[in-house]
Sequence to fold (268 residues):
Amino acid sequence: MASWKEELQSRMEKHAAGKETSLLCFDIIDSTNEEAKRQGMTDAPEGLFVVADTQEKGRGRRGRSWESPGGENIYMSVLLRPSFGPEQASMVTLVAALSVAKAIRLIAGLPAMIKWPNDIVIDGKKAVGILTELTLKEGGIESLVCGIGINVNQKEFPEELKQTATSLCLEKGEQIDRTGLILAVMKTFWEDYRAFSGRGDLSSIREEYEALLVNRDRQVRVLDPKGEYTGIAKGINEKGELLVEKEDGQVEAVYAGEVSVRGIYGYV
Fold:
């Protein structure tokens, strides 16, 4: 029987995802983001996807650890070498969120939605985390790495996560094809990323993103260090900022790097 790596490599050769991208697979690794960053220090090409069966030091946002059991989930990162500036890099996380949500809907048939800016939720619980990291050089970006962790076939979660985390298997009630989902993510991400990088903003994918935005037209609380406030999320602008209509009718553009948005009811 072919290993998961052999199956992935074989199917990639026949899949549209393999036409402009390349693949590096590991059984065990510290972190796919760390490996992608190491590859970024070499002459590795843009479009290199690093995929691992198990991560020993997976990380989420703000340095949080990311549970990475083997044989169950997807841990993958893509190496990019953008020509745009660091101020545009945060938009890549929204591109990835849209791409992953579309791939999940296609392969698993689940109603994956986006909690702004880049969490993927199903029925109010988080199933995907995305982490984008930059390596800078004089005059711009040397490399950008976008890491994607998808809870695919995991059935048990630590007690502290059971109320907020889920997996595709738990939601679907059956095992999900990890290989097919990896290939779908690679294809959708590359298509959406090229559309984004061609314009340097999210105008080409904004409508698609907003259609899957679970926060849209819902009450949110913006945890801004300058002062918290409540409003209705109306969508995003071309920079990926969340547009929040305050009680006085004023619309604020909320930047992901500055504030945290929490739903009034439930996880989202």
